[in-house]
Amino acid sequence: MTNNDNKDKTLAQILRSRGISRRGFLKFCAATASMMAMSPAMIPKIAHALENARRPSVIWLSFQECTGCTESLTRAHTATVESLIFDAISLDYHHTLQAASGHAAEEARETAMKENYGEYLLVVDGSIPMGNPGYSTIAGISNYDMLMETAKGAAAIIAVGTCATYGGIPQAKPNPTGAVSVRDLIKDKPIINVPGCPPIPVVITGVLTHFLTFGTIPELDHLGRPKVFYGQSIHDRCYRRPFYDKGLFAETFDDEGAKKGWCLYKLGCKGPTTYNACATTKWNDGTSWPIEAGHPCLGCSEPDFWDGGGFYKALSMPTENITQTVIYTAAGAVAAGLMLGARNLSKKEQAKAAHSNTTIDDLKK
Amino acid sequence: MPESETGAIKFNIQIGDELTQNVKPLLHEVKHGLEKLIETGKITVIDLRSIPLAPNEEDKILNILGQGEVVAKLDALGLSEVVETKYTGVWLVTHYNDEDHIISRFIEVTTMPEILCSQTEDIMAAYSRLTLDLEDSLKTNESVVEKSA
Question: Is the pTM of this model over 0.80?
Answer without folding.
Answer: no
